[in-house]
């Protein structure tokens, strides 16, 4: 306990030191790195990543980009850049040396070109390339030489309403070869095809947020006539804007809307159910910026436009509204926030896509016509190590890295929770209580207190029983004395 008390007593001094360090660290950034404190308010923090450099089309040697729309890093370490305005896919290695430009394709002996492409995906199991050819109203499947083997066009079925346009925006493919397509006009989820191009239906629709208006409409529909219900306004979910798929086959989606808080980020199982709902209240997760209540009427909600699943299962989420990147570990705990709006390195005018590779992040800006490369810092490496160890169930091994995190940033709440959890799992309940108290984690504190109480009761069980026996015997003796009148005699004598 002495070491812990010393740490707690130095928190205030450490926070001052960290604030100075944070200012120093952010001096090289065009934005101020921050995180959230125990009350959910933004607070200065160490940078988890630092912006290194821009990469433009001219740097690669293909001329200027024009509204680049998407990025993808393939399993064979190639970067695919969707150059929307130039109707092409630019392919480089991870050092941005040009590998090829895909701008003409062959299908059934005929030459064809792209028209405003907006998405690309490379199937790691079959080496096929899928391109969302937006204004040609199709998704094409081709090889690296541009030979098209299949086209996924508008579904010819009554299930796909004639009122809906078909302009594919993003595309991914699962292990079985099923193709999922985000179409902006479709709010029922991703349009899903099998490997042979057969339309299978819709996948992973968002829920309708239960606002007062929605609840009122539901009530009136219960008491309305059929004719009135046909004329009433129908509540429809908002379609998600982008997605990614991990090595286990789980699909993660983000929704761009700033008008809803329902299903902004989802992790979907094969049945299309959001398994993030099962994480429970302990995780306290909230995606994007948090709006402090005292100025929330002036704050703009995040607009999430892309999600990337990193090599350790971390979630890298791109916020168009504020030009920020939010990185979470695989259990959805916030790790780092970086970026902002502006012209300087590390900020964005129109953040469009994000990808990760090793210890780097790549962010595409469709107005700057360039991408920015971020590299993880020493602080970022320690946090990542601690989070990965803990999430892999290596609680003892995660303890020292979490303690090192606090040496960098005494305000990093996740470290206090991580240390508290590690101590709790090895049975050090009393010490765990102190860390949970600092992080204002009431549920965890209560569980640690229950563990501490059980140990205390077991350690003092004999003494408690002896005291109870003495009390019981004393009560019995006093009862007998009272019956014989001796108790009254003693009371009078005492008086």
Low-confidence stretches: 1-27, 209-220, 228-233, 293-298
Helix content: 25-40%
Total helical segments:
12
* Assembly state of the chains shown: single chain
Strand order of the largest sheet: 3-27-26-25
The biggest sheet, with number of strands, parallel, antiparallel or mixed sense and barrel status, is: 4 strands, antiparallel
- What separation lies between the terminal Cα atoms? 51 Å
> How confident is the prediction overall: mean pLDDT?
84
Q: What structural class results from the helix and strand content?
A: alpha+beta
Any idea what the shape is? elongated
- The count of DSSP E runs of length 2 or more, i.e. the number of strands, is 27
Proportion in β-strands:
25-35%
What would you report as the Rg, rounded to the nearest angstrom? 30 Å
Quick tags:
four-stranded antiparallel sheet, single chain, disordered N terminus, 495 residues, alpha+beta
Would you give an account of this structure?
This protein is of the alpha+beta class. The chain has twelve helices and 27 strands. The protein has helices at 2-9, 11-26, 57-60, 212-223, 226-231, 378-391, 395-408, 413-425, 429-438, 442-459, 461-483, 486-494, and strands at 34-36, 42-44, 49-56, 68-73, 78-83, 88-93, 98-102, 104-107, 110-113, 119-122, 129-133, 138-142, 148-152, 168-173, 179-183, 189-193, 199-204, 242-245, 251-254, 265-268, 304-309, 315-319, 324-328, 334-339, 351-357, 360-365, 370-376. The strands form eight sheets. The protein has a four-stranded antiparallel beta sheet. Strands 4-5-6-7 form a four-stranded antiparallel beta sheet, with no helix packed on it. α7 (395-408) packs antiparallel against α8 (413-425).
């Amino acid at each position: 306990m002495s070491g812990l008390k010393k740490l707690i007593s130095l928190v205030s001094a450490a926070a001052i030191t960290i604030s100075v360090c944070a200012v120093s660290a952010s001096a090289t950034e065009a934005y101020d790195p921050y995180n959230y404190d125990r009350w959910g308010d933004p607070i200065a923090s160490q940078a988890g990543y630092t912006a290194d450099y821009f990469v433009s089309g001219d740097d690669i040697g293909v001329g200027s980009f024009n509204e680049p729309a998407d990025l993808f890093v393939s399993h064979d370490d190639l970067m695919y850049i969707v150059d929307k305005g130039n109707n092409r896919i630019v392919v480089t290695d991870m050092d941005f040396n040009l590998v090829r430009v895909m701008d003409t394709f062959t299908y059934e002996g005929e030459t064809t070109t792209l028209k405003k492409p907006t998405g690309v995906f490379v199937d790691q199991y079959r080496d096929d390339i899928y391109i969302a050819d937006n204004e040609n109203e199709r998704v094409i499947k081709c090889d690296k030489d541009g030979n098209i083997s299949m086209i996924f066009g508008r579904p010819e079925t009554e299930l796909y309403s004639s009122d809906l346009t078909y302009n594919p925006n993003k595309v991914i493919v699962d292990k079985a070869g099923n193709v999922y397509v985000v179409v902006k006009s479709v709010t029922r989820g991703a349009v899903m095809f099998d490997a042979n191009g057969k339309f299978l239906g819709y996948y992973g629709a968002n829920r309708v947020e239960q606002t007062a208006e929605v609840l009122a409409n539901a009530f009136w529909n219960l008491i309305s006539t059929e004719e009135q219900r046909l004329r009433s306004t129908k509540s429809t979910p908002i379609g998600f804007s982008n997605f990614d798929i991990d090595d286990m086959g789980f699909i993660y989606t983000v929704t761009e809307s700033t008008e809803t808080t329902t299903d902004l980020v989802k992790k979907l199982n094969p049945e299309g159910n959001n398994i993030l709902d099962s994480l429970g209240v302990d995780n306290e997760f909230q995606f994007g910026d948090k709006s402090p209540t005292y100025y929330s009427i002036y704050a703009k909600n995040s607009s999430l436009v892309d999600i990337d699943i990193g090599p350790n299962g971390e979630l890298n989420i791109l916020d168009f509204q504020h030009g920020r990147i939010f990185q979470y570990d695989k259990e959805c705990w916030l790790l780092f926030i970086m970026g902002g709006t502006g012209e300087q390195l590390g900020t964005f005018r129109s953040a469009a896509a994000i990808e990760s590779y090793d210890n780097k992040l790549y962010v595409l800006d469709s107005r700057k016509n360039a991408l920015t490369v971020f590299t993880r810092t020493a602080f970022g490496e320690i946090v990542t190590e601690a989070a990965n160890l803990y999430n892999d169930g290596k609680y003892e091994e995660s303890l020292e890295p979490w303690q090192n995190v606090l040496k960098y940033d005494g305000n990093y709440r996740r470290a206090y929770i991580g240390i508290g959890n590690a101590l709790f799992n090895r049975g050090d309940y009393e010490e765990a209580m102190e860390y949970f108290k600092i992080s204002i984690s009431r549920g965890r504190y209560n569980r640690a207190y229950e563990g501490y109480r059980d140990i205390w009761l077991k350690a003092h069980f004999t003494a408690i029983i002896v005291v109870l026996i003495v009390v019981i015997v004393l009560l019995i003796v006093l009862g007998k004395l009272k019956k014989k009148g001796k108790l009254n005699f003693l009371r009078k004598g005492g008086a």
